[in-house]
Design brief:
By secondary structure, this protein is mostly helical. About 70% of the residues lie in helices and about 5% in strands. The protein has seven helices and two strands. It has a two-stranded antiparallel ribbon.
């Protein structure tokens, strides 16, 4: 089913063009150095858009990936500057999701776009992981929450 979803995303809806756009935009922003945290996040988002059915975007902090504190602080500053643009992109994507839901064929594509709204709003310090990894993270977080509530 995931393969069929990815084919539907790429063939009639040209998802590969969207993926290429975000990846190239991320590459340009990374080469500018000042906007590198944003560019790296957009490159990961482009990688996600190549196979959105079967992948998830998660925060590096959720994966417990070690990060330099200065890089995290700088990333937060870049994200705050990007935030107004992110809100605009989220509004445009939400309108697109609404419009795609008018056709049955557009609903899977609308789900991809809706699933990525959080990343469009804040692509900084996000990575693309397989869905199985994201599900395992959610399972472990749920177990930790249950243990916390029992104690």
């Amino acid at each position: 089913m995931r393969t069929l979803g990815n084919i539907l995303w790429h063939i009639p809806f040209l998802g590969f063009l969207t993926a290429a756009f975000y990846w190239l935009l991320g590459l340009v922003l990374t080469l500018l150095v000042v906007t590198a945290p944003l560019g790296l996040g957009l490159m990961e988002f482009g990688k996600f858009l190549l196979a959105p059915f079967g992948n998830e975007m998660v925060s590096k902090s959720d994966l417990d990936m070690p990060q330099n504190p200065l890089w995290r602080a700088y990333s937060t500053l870049v994200m705050l500057v990007y935030l107004p643009f992110g809100v605009l992109f989220v509004i445009l994507n939400a309108i697109q999701v609404f419009a795609l839901c008018f056709s049955i064929v557009g609903i899977p594509v609308a789900l991809v776009i809706a699933k990525s709204l959080g990343t469009v709003l804040n692509p900084v310090n996000k990575v693309c992981v397989p869905t199985a990894v994201a599900e395992e993270m959610a399972r472990r977080n749920a177990r930790a929450e249950i243990d916390r509530r029992r104690a």
